[in-house]
Amino acid sequence: MIRKSAMYNKNTLALTIIFILLIIGYGCKNTSQRSQAIQEKVKQYHHKKILLPFSDSVLYNNAMIPVGQTNLKKGAIKVSTYIDGQCGSCLKTLTNWKPLISLAKKHHDFQILFYVYAFSRDEFIQYYYPESIHEYPVMFDTQKKYLKRNELSEYEDYKTFLLNGDNEVTLVGNPARSEKLMALYEQEIIKRLNAADQ
Questions:
Q1: Phi, psi angles (nearest 5°) of residue 27
Q2: First CA to last CA across the chain, in angstroms?
Q3: What does the domain layout of the chain look like in residue ranges?
Q4: Domain 47-197 belongs to what architecture?
Q5: Model pLDDT for residues 55-79, shown as the tens digit of each residue
Q6: Order of strands, edge to edge, in the sheet holding 138-140?
Q7: Distance between alpha carbon 31 and the CA centroid of its chain, in Å?
Q8: How open is the CA angle 111-117-121, to the nearest 5 degrees?
Q9: Distance of alpha carbon 43 from alpha carbon 31, whole angstroms
């Protein structure tokens, strides 16, 4: 009986180890494939010109303002991003934009374009509009023009771009979801602003 139990334990242990090794192997392969997919996406968008549509309406300091008051600055460095106003986890990351919002307030030649799709503007304002971005305009895009004009999928991660003065992509990815990417965005923006001042 003891032998049977010992054999059972050995078999169970062996199967567990094999299972763990398979998971690790799959995870490594998955990470490698994901990394390759990201690199391909970055190459695909690099230097692509992003079209920046006018929004339906603009939310600023907890109030709706005329669209004409949020001009797209020609020649300015920009970060453009699409935010799904129905996605709770997406909206939680809005507070992480504070470092770039502070930078945009200090520098006239840099702006952030928040394109927000929300089924209900009132619901967005009441429940999801964080105080940390009240001092920066949020553009409602009820027809998803930002996605359509740039042929972007709403189900992919690549809807945020750092653009040069000609609206060409220089960086891809949402810095609000990654501290490393946020640092890279800040570094690149400051470098370009300093170069423009010289």
A1: -60, -45
A2: 84
A3: 1-45, 47-197
A4: 3-Layer(aba) Sandwich (3.40)
A5: 878 888 888 887 755 567 777 899 9
A6: 63-65, 57-60, 138-140, 110-117, 77-84, 160-163, 169-172
A7: 20
A8: 100
A9: 18
